[in-house]
């Protein structure tokens, strides 16, 4: 959830037509499943992840309240971290291509060799 926080908030806000900060259980479950790509029982998990009002509407920002990051980061840095985390496997592939000598270090020489070949 942390790595997709920005996308989740955007999805929740698209569902929140009245800008109340609340959406229905169905809208929340739909957003969670589609944004995270996880086919989980979100309705069942909701009691552990979010606060629900008397009408059954979910205060969607409460799903981030119990998530704690040790050192707070600025919003711009947070978006960068989310993006890097999301593309970590692609970045690893790129690094492995650059690290042609398998030393674990991306040197200028190995980078030049990749660019020439």
Characterization of the model:
With 117 residues, this protein is mainly alpha-helical. It has two domains: 5-64, EF-hand (Recoverin, domain 1), CATH 1.10.238; 75-116, no CATH class. Helix content is 54%, strand content 5%. The chain is built from six helices and three strands. It has helices spanning 5-15, 25-36, 42-49, 75-86, 88-98, 108-116, and strands spanning 22-23, 51-52, 58-59. It has a three-stranded antiparallel β-sheet with strand order 1-3-2. A hairpin with a 5-residue loop joins strand 2 (51-52) and strand 3. The longest helix has 12 residues, at 25-36. The radius of gyration is 20 Å and the shape is elongated. 10% of the residues are buried. The mean pLDDT is 82.
What's the topology here?
Elements: H1 5-15, E1 22-23, H2 25-36, H3 42-49, E2 51-52, E3 58-59, H4 75-86, H5 88-98, H6 108-116
Antiparallel strand pairs: 1-3, 2-3
Helix pairs in contact: 1-2
Protein name: Protein phosphatase with EF-hand domain 1
InterPro entries: EF-hand-dom_pair (IPR011992)
């Amino acid at each position: 959830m942390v790595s997709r926080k920005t996308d989740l908030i955007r999805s929740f806000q698209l569902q929140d037509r009245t800008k109340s900060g609340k959406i229905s259980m169905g809208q929340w479950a739909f957003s969670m499943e589609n944004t995270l790509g996880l086919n989980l029982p979100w309705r069942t998990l909701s009691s552990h992840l979010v606060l629900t009002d008397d009408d059954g509407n979910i205060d969607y920002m409460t799903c981030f309240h119990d998530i704690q990051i040790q050192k707070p980061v600025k919003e711009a840095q947070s978006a960068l971290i989310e993006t890097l985390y999301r593309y970590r496997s692609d970045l690893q592939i790129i690094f492995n291509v650059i690290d042609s000598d398998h030393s674990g270090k991306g040197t200028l020489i190995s980078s030049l060799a990749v660019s020439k070949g």
